[in-house]
Amino acid sequence: MTNVIRKLLSLAGAVLMVTALGCASTAKQEGTGEYADDTVITGKVKTAIFNEPTLKSAEINVETFKGVVQLSGFVSSAAAETTAVAVARNVGGVKSVKNDMRLK
Length: 104
Known about the structure:
Blueprint: H1 2-23, H2 32-51, E1 59-65, E2 68-75, H3 78-89, E3 96-103
Parallel strand pairs: 2-3
Antiparallel strand pairs: 1-2
């Protein structure tokens, strides 16, 4: 009986370790929690950009990876580009902003 319990505990420990490692982040892959955080940040940045009156006609795409926001797409002026970056930087949880936007 003790041998069976020991094997079950070993199996449970192995399953727990594999599960924990499977959800851990690496340099190129997010963990589960980071993915959820980045999804929230992306939504907040998109909302902030949408609510900025000077950016209404902009075609800006937002992606987030480990708190780093990447803005891409097209804007009508350099001022709109600067505004979009500033708006994104002011969103909570944003570590930095990469600007890959282009002028139309």
